[in-house]
Amino acid sequence: MKYAAFLRGINVGGHKSIKMEDLSQMFASLGFKNITTHIQSGNVVFESSKKNNALLTQRIEKELCSLAGGEVSVFLRTMEELEDMINKNPFRKIREDVLAKRYVTFLSCEPKSKSKLPFLSPKKDIEVLEIENQTVFSLGLAFGSGRFGFPNQWIEKEMGVSATTRNWTMIVKMLSDA
Asked: N or C: which end of the chain has fewer CB within 10 A?
């Protein structure tokens, strides 16, 4: 089965720095095949004969702890799940000229709190459009001097779970490269 692993907090601000070559070798040492990495922020596509997501995640996190010198959370999705996500495209109703960034936030488990959708962050810089299968689809809205809201910390606080965020374009690219 083919998977995408999204690693939280590596190669950000000089913390938990991991070379992509080392990351690929670590995944290979776990017996995974056809490993590819995407940009430096910890996106890995691989194949495994194992189909237990919880066990795979635990094995990867254990090895990453040694490699990164600290805990790294892993958010695992099958490529089929990503394909379904792309096909449904929760951003399809957003006009292209809307000044916003499209984000996908992967949650570690079901959110502890739920709000009526869509809803805005208190600063009105993030709009959550949809939540499905432990995944949040949101817009980072323009504010200030050309900056955009980034949803990860606010979503973690709002929903009471650990999360990692990627932009929609990266998810589409990972699937097309797979």
From this structure: N
